[in-house]
## 1
Amino acid sequence: MDLTAIKAEARKAAFARRKKAYQSAGPAQSAHLSEILAGYRGVSLAGYMPIRTEISPLPAMAEAAAHGPVGVPVIQGEAMPLEFSRWEPGCALRDGPFGAKVPLDDDFFEPEIVIVPLVAFDARGGRLGYGGGFYDRTLERLRARRATLAIGFAFDAQEAGELPLEPTDQPLDMMVTESRIIEFHR
C-alpha cells in the first residue's frame, strides 16, 4: 500500500473518532487552550473557524482578541501557503473555501502563534491534516522567518499510535485537547 492510501485510511479512522468525540463532548472545549493563550497575551496569533466536527477554538480566540491581533486562515490557492486575516468576535464574515468562514475584509498579518486544526495527532507532535498541505507550507514559511509556535487543537480521541508522516510534514510544538496539554521538546 502506498503512502497516499495509508494516509487516506488513517484519515478515515481519525474522522470517525473525531465525529464520535464531537457528538459526545460538543465543539466548545477550549478551557485548556485559553489557559495556554493567557501566557501569550498580546502576541499575534491565528486560530481557525471550525468546520464540520472540529473542536472550536472560538472562545479562546475571543479572549485573546481583547489583548492582541487574532487572525483566521484564508486560502489563496491550491498548493499555496495560507494567509491570515484579522478576526474579532462579531466581525463581518463571508464564505471561504471548504465551508470555513473568513473575514469580509482582508487585513493580512503574520502570526507568531498558529492554532492548527487537524484530523489526527501522535505523541511525538506529528499531525495529520486534510491532505492539502496548507498548514505544512504555511508553518515552513513562517518558521523560516522567525520562531513560530504551532499549537495543535483537537479531541483526545484524535490521538493515533503512529501516523504516516512525510519529511515535509511540519511538527507541532504543543498539543491541546479537552483534557490535557502536551508539550513537545525538539
## 2
Amino acid sequence: MQKLMTRKISTVALAGALAAGLALAAAAPPAGAQTDEETQRGLERFRQMLREDPWANPALLDADRGELLWTTAAGPKNATLEDCDLGLGPGVVDGAFAQLPRYFEDAGRVMDVETRILWCMQELQGVDVAAYVKRPHPSGGQPVKDVGAIATWVANRSEGEPFAPVLDDAAGRATVAMGEALFNRRSGPFDFSCATCHSASGQRIRLQELPHLSQPEEAQVAIAEWPAYRVSSTHVMTMQHRMYDCYWQMRMPQLEMGSEASVALIAYLVDKAAGGEIAAPGIKR
C-alpha cells in the first residue's frame, strides 16, 4: 500500500519544466509571427513534460491523502471506507473507476465516483453529507476536499485502463439521455449550454482549446484526465467540480454535488469517452 507523502514533488524539476514550457509557448518569434498552432504545440509540449515526470504532478499528493482517508476510521460510526462497494465488490478499488458511472441497487440510482464515495461515507461512517454538500469544492489555492482526494486516488488506481462505464441497463440509458438533454439545453441569462463551447472542433477560449465533447475521439482524450490538477487554481479539480464550475461560468443555478443532473452530465460525457485510456489525475491549465 502506498503511504501518504511517499511521492515528493521535485520543485527543481517542476520549476525547470515550467520555465521550459513558458519559453516554448511564449518566446522568440517577432510579434505576430508565431501561429496559434505553434503556440498550442508549445503549450502541449510543456504539459507533456509534466506528465512524463511522475514527481511533477501535485495531484499525486492528494491521491496519497485519499488512500489514507479511505483506510482511516472516521465519522460517528468510527469506521473506514474499506467496505465501500464501488461496483466491483466491497473494498475493491483497482479498476472500479473505469466502470463508473453505474447503477447501484443498494442506493437505487446511477452514481459517479464522487457520489458513490459520499454515499459510502454516509452509510458506513455516519457522516452528515448534507453539511458536506453545502461546500464540497475548494476555493482557489485551497486543497481539494476529502471526497475529491479519495476520488483522485480511486481514479488513479484505474490509470491505463479503458473507460467502460456500466450504462447499458434501463437506468443507465435513461441517465445518459438526461445528460445529453442537459448538455444541449440552452438556458440561463446568457442562453448558454454546454454545447455552446463544446460542440465543434478547433474552438478555444484564449489559449485554452475546447474539445468537441460529443465526438468520442475528443471526449476520450479530454475526459480521461479528470480528476486533474489545475495550475491556474493550484488544486485538484474533480469532474463534479468541473460540472459545477461550468454551470457557474454560464451563470446557471448552482449545480449540487451528487444531484441527478450532475451525475447525468458526467454519465453522458463518460459514455462518449468509452474506450479512452484513463490518465488520471491529469494536469490542466
